UniProtKB/TrEMBL annotation:
Protein name: Fe-S cluster assembly protein SufD
Similarity-based family: Belongs to the iron-sulfur cluster assembly SufBD family.
A single GO BP: iron-sulfur cluster assembly
Domain SUF system FeS cluster assembly SufBD core, chain residue ranges per copy: 143-370
Domain of life, source organism: Bacteria
Xref: InterPro entries: Fe-S_cluster_assembly_SufBD (IPR055346), SUF_FeS_clus_asmbl_SufBD_core (IPR000825), SUF_FeS_clus_asmbl_SufBD_sf (IPR037284), SUF_FeS_clus_asmbl_SufD (IPR011542)
Length: 399
């Protein structure tokens, strides 16, 4: 597998490439300004209707968004949401005027702003200060064939610890926002699984605001859907915060799966680690990964790394992988990124086949191994087993 990467740096950068593009720049402006055609805003009118030539939309097939991008998609209650909370965790429904809604980050594009302006009520789940529920919070979003706009807030008090599992299933056209508010010293793990039916469209922005000495672990798993476009975004409210962003996607024939990340280091002595892996198979399978990391001038002592790896299983599939790193201060611990895309490792296949394993089985073993490292980091046996079974089902058609 060919790989382009840069080594960790001290107060500087070493350029690196990617599958289609890659860059590192020492910048005087925030990526919020340089990487988008308009600054973040809650107002839909602040974002022009995209035409596909903008940097943030050039990979996305706009005609498959079903009107989410131009205001023609009308909500008709197309989803059913079920929330299961363990003892001590509260759930409430609030309006857009609640101070917690949107606090973790503003919409960054027209679809996100449309989702924010169009949802009727937001669900707020609160884990109190120092609480540590033994069971995960489970959220099921099931599409029922219609169009919906939604917003959720997950709030952890100081020194609380919680795990949240979100499952997306069924058929829907959904634009949604999620806020993760992580109090000082708190620890939040979120596993978001996109296992939609083949016709679904899902565009989401996930904002995390990490408190002092708090930690956030995000696991994003994308299998289904006609088009899935997700924006995981991380900001730090104070010093000492850490973020771990893990992603796994399996892009099948005709699917478009796009993950666009931003980690904004705007506080000193914070860390981030990003690892996303994807496999693709079938004609017109298209995966897009954009990894933006910004180290602002105030963020001395930052330590960050991001990596994206892709395994192309068949002809006709396409990957666009673009890591970006912008550094405004030389007083950092380290910063680096890597991007790699390739086919099967011939040496691994030869090793397995030389020991009597048929080629098709050997290929399955290679792909399982490719994903196993990430799946095992989830830490929830039932979720891990379900994902491994899903990968196995995908591989039955792949190799």
């Amino acid at each position: 597998m060919a790989e382009a990467q840069n080594a960790p740096v001290q107060g500087g950068t070493v350029p690196a490439g990617s599958t289609t593009a890659g860059q590192i720049a020492v910048a005087a402006e925030s990526t919020v300004a340089t990487r988008m055609s308009a600054p973040p805003s809650y107002d839909v009118a602040d974002f022009p209707v995209p035409h596909g030539r903008e940097e943030e939309w050039r990979f996305t097939p706009l005609e498959r968004l079903r009107g989410l991008h131009d205001g023609t998609a009308v909500a008709d209650g197309g989803i059913r949401v079920e929330i299961s909370t363990p003892e001590g965790v509260t759930q409430e429904t609030v309006g857009r005027d609640d101070a917690r809604v949107g606090r973790a980050g503003k919409p960054v594009d027209r679809v996100a702003a449309q989702a924010y302006s169009a949802f009727e009520k937001a669900s707020v789940i609160t884990v109190p200060k120092e609480a540590r529920p033994e069971e995960p919070i489970r959220i099921t979003v099931h599409g029922e064939g219609g169009t919906a706009y939604a917003h959720q807030v997950i709030e952890l008090g100081a020194f609380a610890e919680a795990v949240v599992v979100v499952d997306h299933t069924g058929d829907a056209v959904l634009a949604a926002g999620v806020d993760y508010l992580i109090g000082d010293g708190a620890k939040l793990t979120v596993v978001s699984v996109q296992d939609w039916d083949d016709n679904a469209v899902h565009v989401g922005q996930h904002n995390a605001l990490i408190g002092r000495d708090a930690s956030f672990k995000s696991v994003v798993v994308t299998f289904g859907g006609d088009l899935v476009r997700l924006h995981p975004r991380v900001n730090y409210a104070s010093t000492g915060g850490s973020a771990e962003l893990i992603g796994l996607y399996f892009t099948d024939r005709g699917q478009h799966q796009e993950h666009r990340l931003l980690v904004d280091h705007d506080q000193p002595h914070c860390t981030s680690n990003v690892v996303y892996k994807g496999a693709l198979q079938g004609d017109d399978a298209h995966a897009v990964w954009i990894g933006d990391v910004l180290i602002e001038a105030a963020a001395e002592g930052t330590d960050t790394y991001e990596m994206n790896r892709n395994l192309v299983l068949t002809d006709g599939a396409r990957v666009d992988s673009v890591p970006n790193l912008e550094i405004e201060t030389g007083e950092i611990v380290g910063a680096g990124h890597a991007s790699a895309t390739g086919r099967f490792d011939d040496e691994q296949l030869f090793y397995l086949m030389a020991r009597g394993i048929p080629e098709a089985d050997a290929r399955r073993l290679v792909v399982r191994g490719f994903f196993a490292e990430l799946v095992q980091q989830i830490g929830l046996p039932d979720v891990e087993e379900r994902l491994l079974a899903k990968i196995e089902a995908e591989l039955e058609a792949a190799v």
